[in-house]
Structures are given as C-alpha cells and as structure tokens.
Write a structure and sequence with these properties.
Layout (H helix, E strand, L loop, with lengths): L3 E2 L7 H30 L1 H5 L12 H29 L1 H10 L2 H10 L7 H9 L2 H17 L2 H29 L13 H4 L2 H14 L2 E2 L6 H4 L6 H31 L9 H21 L1 H24 L3 H37 L4 H26 L2 H16 L3 H23 L1 H7 L1 H6 L2
Helix pairs in contact: 1-4, 1-7, 1-8, 1-10, 3-4, 3-6, 3-7, 3-12, 3-16, 3-17, 4-7, 4-10, 5-6, 7-8, 7-16, 8-12, 8-13, 8-15, 12-13, 12-15, 12-16, 12-17, 12-18, 13-14, 13-15, 14-15, 14-18, 15-16, 17-18
Length: 448
C-alpha cells in the first residue's frame, strides 16, 4: 500500500465511489482511534486532580482547578504547530509522531503519583504535558478534511471529532474504576490513570503506520497556510468555536470538580455523562448542518445554550442537584451540536471565498477548489486551537468565581453573555440575507 497518494479528487463522483471512499474510511477509523487517545490523555487530570488530597497532596481548591485547567491552555497552544504539521509532514506520518508523544504525559503521571511531597510547580509542569493530547485534534481534523468531498465533510468531521471527544467520557468513566485496582487504605492508585493508556498509545501508532496514508494534494508550505490569518472569517469562526468547542472541553474538564464542590453529598460517578452526551451530539450537529445549513443550526443552538446556562445558574442558586444535572447535560448536548455545525460552516465559507476570487475558466475553478480545501484545513486547525482556550478559561473561571464568592454563578453569567454575543455575530455575518447576497451569494443560495 502506498504511503503517499498523488492523485486525490473526492469531488469526482466516479473516483469517490470506486476508490476514494474506502481509503477515506480507513484513514478516518485510525484517525478516530488516535484522536480518542489524545483526548483521553488531555483530560486525565480532570479525574486525577480531585483525588490528589486523598494521597496527601496539600493543594488548595484553586490549585486543583489550575491543574485541571493548564492542560487546556497548553493543548490550545499545541494545536497551532499540529495544524501546520499535516501539510508539512503528511497526515499518516504526523499521526504516528503525535501518538507516540502521548507517552510523555502518561509516564510523568505514573512517576509523580507516589510522591505527595511533590511541589506544586512540578506537578503543574507534569499536568501541562497532557496538553500534547489536545494538539492531536487539530492535526486529525485538518488531515481528515482533505479526504472527504464537501457534501460529506460535516458528517465525517463530526464522526472524527466525536470519536475524539468521547475520550473525555472514557477517562471520566473508566479511570475511576482502574485507579481502584491495587488501591490500599482507601487511597486510589492514581498511577493507573497514566499506566492504562500506554499499550493503547503504542497500538495507535502501529495502526497509523500500517493503515493510514499521506495525501500529496494536502502538502503546502507554512507561508501558504498562513494566508488564512488575513481572512476575516478565520477569526470570526474562531470566535464562534470558542463558544461551542471551548464550552465542551472546558465544561468537561471542570465538571467532576464542580460536582464535588457544589454537591459533595453526591457520591455517584456521574461526571462522565456530560462529555458522553456532548460527544454523541457532535456528528448529529454536523448532519443537521449538512441538511439544514450550518449557520441556521449554529444560530438556534446559541439560543439554546444561553437559555440552558440560565437554567444551570438557577439550579445552582437553589441547590437542586436534579435540575442542575439535567440542564448541564442538555448544555453539553448543545455544545456538541454547535461543534458540528460550526465546523460544517468553515469549508462552505472558504469554498465560496476562493471561488469568488478565482478568474474565469474551468482550470481556475479547479485550482480554487484545491486552494479552498487547503485553506479550510488550516482554518479548521486554527479555529480548534483558539477554541480549545475554553479548556483553560472555563475551569479557571469557575475556580476564580468560587474563590471570590463561594459560588460558580459569576462564571456562568459570563458564559451566558458570551453565547448571546456569539448569536449576534452568527446572525450578522452568516444569517443576515442582505449581507450574504452582496458578499457571499453562494452562501445565501446554499443556506450555509
């Protein structure tokens, strides 16, 4: 099997049905596996940090929230180089490297869990390396976007992202069980939280080596990719993605510790449910966007996110666990739907932009479509990088709010305001028909 594929044209129906689809599906499967592990490692500390006091680690609540938050910040920063790595080195090649890099945070976690005298700065450094797992998403999404035709991108990217996102739920469901193996005197064996992923990481790297491909058409240099930073819609979509994916990853990281601080009487392990339902909702959001239009789904989704955040705020204030859990799970679902719909918007927007700028003629149109795929991949990666900042901001906001007022209400109020602003931005640029007809007639017709 060739490691590099030179001729790849998924928009050609004959090619897609006879050759392209099976290859794309195989790459998607192994991309999902590798990305799933990336998310799992990225979110390890959301489970480990709340249990550190049981092992004698004398860290404050604010410090514990910081340990949960810092992988989100590092993960968002790592997504920038990871995005550009796919066109530089090839999707298959970078999947192998990025999978093996996950051995760093897992090994460090194993080494430090038996040392309760570890200074906070060293534990924070170890936690920060888990951000390497957050970078996997950007390279994975950028890579898979090249394999699929525009009409199937929403669902394919949704599946790829959902497979990764479920890694958060896997951590929060499985790790609490695994750390009980070998535990003594009611002290969890937290080193198992890192140890358990090592064989799967090696398997993912071997699978990528054996079954994935690099696409020659995806290759471009750094300066070509950086053209997207001059496009206004790159930053608009990044802003919106902070509200959707940033919410998902931030809430997923903070949810276990938030449950523990607000409802200490609840001992059941329910934290995994949020990430699970949010992950499942992501391909649904992509599918809805394929059918109804990304901007329509995104706009209504922000309405729902604002309303549900208001509901969470209300149930926190009256200390109703049932209401809090139900509304927060619905909020997770809407964050997943928004993830899918916003990512569906990006290929459509940049396809329209590149076609409008192309000279007349079929050859120019074909070149514009190739350029659009490259720009879309770069914007998918950059947006995911900026959006992942939510993985840091949300846990830190909860920690700061709790420290200042003893309640997460201030943080929730800020999140609600952001969703309302995002709704306004979506309407202004992608739902206001007078703007679309004048600037993006293709989007107006496609109802993107």
């Amino acid at each position: 099997m060739s490691r590099w594929i030179s001729n790849w044209n998924p928009e050609d129906e004959t090619f897609w049905k006879t050759e392209g689809k099976p290859i794309a599906r195989r790459n998607l499967i192994w991309s999902i596996i590798a990305e799933h592990l990336g998310f799992s490692v990225w979110m390890m500390w959301s489970v480990v940090a709340p249990r550190l006091p049981k092992l004698g680690f004398a860290y404050s609540t604010d410090q514990l929230f910081t340990l949960v938050a810092v992988p989100g910040l590092v993960g968002s920063l790592m997504r920038f180089p990871y995005t550009f790595a796919v066109p530089k080195f090839g999707g298959r090649n970078w999947t192998i490297v990025s999978a093996l890099l996950l051995l760093i945070p897992t090994t460090l976690l194993v080494m430090l869990m038996g040392r309760p005298d570890t200074p906070f700065w060293l534990m924070l450094l170890a936690a920060s390396t888990a951000g390497l797992g957050g970078g996997n998403f950007a390279s994975s999404m950028a890579n898979i976007s090249f394999f699929y035709p525009d009409k199937e991108k929403g669902f394919a990217l949704g599946l790829n992202a959902a497979g990764g996102n479920i890694g958060v739920s896997s951590v929060q469901l499985i790790v609490p069980l695994v750390i009980g193996i070998g535990a003594t005197q009611a002290k969890p064996a937290l080193q198992n939280a890192g140890l358990m992923w090592i064989p799967f990481i090696i398997l993912a790297a071997l699978g990528a080596y054996a079954f994935m491909n690099n696409l020659s058409s995806a290759r471009s240099n750094f300066s070509d990719q950086m053209l997207v930073v001059r496009r206004k819609h790159t930053w608009i979509m990044a802003f919106l993605y902070v509200a959707t994916f940033g919410s998902f990853v931030g809430y997923a990281a903070a949810f276990p510790l938030l449950l523990k601080t607000q409802f200490p009487e609840v001992t059941s392990n329910l934290a995994f449910l949020g990430a699970l339902v949010g992950s499942i909702a992501r391909p649904i959001g992509g599918k809805l966007a394929d059918r109804l239009g990304g901007s329509r789904v995104t706009a209504w989704n922000f309405v729902a996110m604002a309303a549900l955040t208001g509901g969470v705020l209300h149930f926190v204030q009256i200390h109703s666990f049932g209401g809090f859990l139900a509304t927060f799970l619905l909020l997770f679902i809407t964050s997943g739907i928004g993830n899918g719909s916003t990512f569906r918007m990006i290929p459509v927007i940049f396809r329209e932009q590149c076609l409008r700028e192309a000279p007349m003629g079929e050859a120019a149109k074909a070149a514009a479509l190739v350029q659009a795929r490259r720009e879309s991949a770069a914007v998918l990666g950059l947006s995911s990088a900026i959006g992942a900042v939510g993985g840091y901001l949300i846990p830190r906001s909860f920690g700061a709010s709790l420290k200042a007022t003893g309640s997460p209400s201030t943080a929730l109020t800020c999140f609600l305001a952001y969703y309302l602003v995002s709704l306004g931005v979506t309407w202004w640029y992608y739902r206001r028909r007078s703007f679309l007809v004048k600037r993006m007639p293709g989007l107006a017709d496609a109802n993107a």
